[in-house]
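User: Here's a chain of 158 residues. Predict its fold as tokens.
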Amino acid sequence: MWLFLAQNHSAMTHLPTAAAILGAAAALVLLFVYGKEIAFCWAVLSITAFVTVIPTMVTGIAAAKGRLNDNGKPYIQSGFIVDNLPANARIHIHQILGVSGSVVAALLALLGISRLRGGNPNKYLVFVLALLLAILWGIGGHLGGKELWGADTFPGFH
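Assistant: Prediction complete.
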């Protein structure tokens, strides 16, 4: 089961990241043009980002448990985030950014739910949180992708 989850982490990352980026774009548009449809899209994208990051986190924990660091040893993991050791540095930052983004995504999802229920969240707060989420997951995803698909993964292509 852990192997199946670990193998599917990279596939699971795309939907929440795309929803976060599109949600940030919708939040940016809402700063200048108000439209019920754009606000609806932002709210749905924010909720989608949070809901879809849950399986991403589960598969990410499985992937971290099964990965080896540059020294060929398993990542040292006492909790669900790898320990902050030099051998774990890249994956540790990747996980911290992912979890931080998940907290921001939860806040945005709550604001999105509020919007769908007729509320009108502060558009500047929404934009700042949406942009922060896109940046956290964008950088974190890049680091994770580099860890998986970096030059060391395919040494025959050097």
